[in-house]
């Protein structure tokens, strides 16, 4: 008899508290309407000291902590760093398990990172992974311009010639494997050159022509010297004849 009366009293207490904490239409904001206490907002069961113990349908239970004190709240959407976890018994706000995550879809998939971090495939990074570039407007990592391996250095040339000079330039290239997601994202350089030393200082045939030219000049010089010597000899002979 006593147990029956105690059970009836407890049920009556729950009904009374439900009536006190019941709210009317919910406005379109993060918090539901208040019950008889300021701490009771959209809850089915609440207390003056501990706040909401259970929430109305579609609302999320959030355990708020202030120093050593904690109390329950019922929210339309979970605060920063939490996501809404729906369950048959009661919807609740669960903490994001991703470092530097501000908003998440689930415990291991972030949808917005904190300031200074870039979002990439549900994670937050200080720098984008290799092959991806940051977009500063929404702080996300997107596909960058992917290039292949460098080719071997080409032939050392200058003025389209591979000889005839001491120094030239050699070039190597690489191909664009994947274009970037946006045209505003630049690609890395695909060609570069460096100074090189020619393998042959003189071109084939150039040396013989120089030698031929040099030999011709020598012959002309010798001929000129012989002519000069002949004139000097003739003058000397004329002088000797006059003296006699």
What does it look like?
- This protein is of the alpha+beta class and 244 residues long.
- Among the domains are: 37-95, Ribbon (Hormone Receptor, Insulin-like Growth Factor Receptor 1, Chain A domain 2); 98-143, Hormone Receptor, Insulin-like Growth Factor Receptor 1, Chain A, domain 2 (Hormone Receptor, Insulin-like Growth Factor Receptor 1, Chain A domain 2); 145-203, TSP-1 type 1 repeat (Single Sheet), CATH 2.20.100.
- It is 24% helix and 31% strand.
- The chain contains two helices and 16 strands.
- It is rod-shaped, with a radius of gyration of 47 Å.
- The N and C termini lie far apart (179 Å).
- Mean pLDDT is 75; it is low at 1-35.
- One of its GO terms (cellular component) is extracellular region.
- Which CATH class of the domain at 37-95 is shown? Mainly Beta
Using the alpha-carbon principal axes, give the shape.
Answer: rod-shaped
Number of helices: 2
- The string of secondary-structure elements, in order, is HEEEEEEEEEEEEEEEEH
Write the CATH homologous superfamily of the domain at 37-95. Answer: Hormone Receptor, Insulin-like Growth Factor Receptor 1, Chain A, domain 2
Give the spatial strand order of the biggest sheet: 1-2
Largest sheet: 2 strands, antiparallel
CATH topology of the domain at 37-95: Hormone Receptor, Insulin-like Growth Factor Receptor 1, Chain A domain 2
Report the span from N to C terminus.
Answer: 179 Å
The value of Rg in angstroms is 47 Å
CATH second-level architecture of the domain at 37-95:
Ribbon
Low-confidence blocks of residues:
1-35
| Content-based structural category | alpha+beta
pLDDT averaged residue by residue: 75
In terms of quaternary structure, the protein is single chain
Percent helix, as a range, is 10-25%
Strand fraction band?
A: 25-35%
Number of strands: 16
Biased composition (Polar residues): 234-244
Subcellular location: Secreted
Domain R-spondin Fu-CRD: 40-141
Domain Spondin-like TSP1: 145-199
